Amino acid sequence: MGVVREINLNSIDNFSLGVATDGKYLWVLGRENDSLYQIDKLGNLIKTIAIGAIDNLPTEVAFDGKNIWFTGQQFKKIYMVSMSGVLIKSIDVSALDNELYGMEFDGKYIWFTGGQNDKLYLIDKLGNLIKTIDLALIAIGARGVTTDGKCIWLANQATRDLLQMTKSGAIIKAHTIIGITNLPYGMCFDGKYIWFIDGTQNNIVQWEL
Q1: How far apart, in whole angstroms, are the C-alpha atoms of residue 14 and residue 30?
Q2: Confidence of residue 138 (pLDDT cuts 50, 70, 90)
Q3: Long-range pairs, 119-124, Cβ under 8 A, ≥24
Q4: CA distance 45 to 174
Q5: Which residues are within 8 A (CB) of 51 and not within 5 positions of it... i.e. 6 or more apart?
Q6: E strand spans, the chain
Q7: pLDDT tens string 76-113
Q8: Which CATH superfamily is domain 2-208 in?
Q9: Mean pLDDT rounded to a whole number for the chain
Q10: Torsion sign (Cα): 80, 52, 73, 206
């Protein structure tokens, strides 16, 4: 386990928060310009989608195989947009949590982390709550979330680690990232590697399991 490569994002957006993968490319969510950026895995910019008109406080991005999803702190919603940036739907999750951080699509459902209540939420595409995992004693300060199909991974700022746990919330292992970043943000899994945002250096880190 460890770092494979790091991609600096300063030439694209100076305040990167989220990352997702569509299988071939990476999608970066940047707060500086409130945009989604499609890049290759070497960091070359392919496409930019402005999302500030939808929500000017975006926090994380995910991909469901066809469309892009992102969390927005301005209106406490999760949005689905097309690959060209057209708004398709939005889900109001303010009744669950007012601080939206990490998000991931697992092939059927949406996982997202909430800072107001320090919880991990599982909802369907209509916004119906399926499961809640209390993170208060596990990962206060959890930002990014992803799944490798079997386990859930959290980017935990409080302890500066990538926390591996079961889908019921049982901790498997905490993998330290001290020395890599003090501010892990969004994350995703591409089938082989975990990618996460290093908020200290504004990098994407490719991390081998």
Answers
A1: 7
A2: confident
A3: 120/145, 120/152, 120/154, 120/169, 121/93, 121/96, 121/97, 123/91, 123/93, 123/96
A4: 33
A5: 34, 35, 36, 58, 70, 79, 81, 85
A6: 2-8, 16-21, 26-30, 35-39, 45-50, 58-63, 68-72, 77-81, 87-92, 100-105, 110-114, 119-123, 129-134, 142-147, 152-156, 161-165, 171-176, 184-189, 193-198, 203-208
A7: 999 999 999 999 999 999 999 999 999 999 999 999 99
A8: YVTN repeat-like/Quinoprotein amine dehydrogenase (2.130.10.10)
A9: 96
A10: positive
Tokens of 139: 């990962």
AA letter at 196: F
Confirm if 18 and 4 have CB atoms less than 8 A apart. no
Domain boundaries along the sequence of the chain: 2-208
| pTM attached to this predicted model | 0.96
Q: Dig out the tokens for 197 from the structure.
A: 């945002």
State both tokens at 165.
Answer: 């746990």
Query: In whole angstroms, how far apart are CA 184 and each of 45, 114, 117, 134, 164?
Result: 22, 15, 19, 20, 15
Nearest to 117 by CA among 93, 138, 143, 135: 135
pLDDT at residue number 1: 75
Residue 135 pLDDT exceeds 80: yes
List, in sequence order, every residue forming a beta bridge with 61; answer none if it has no partner.
70
Structure tokens at 187: 């994350």
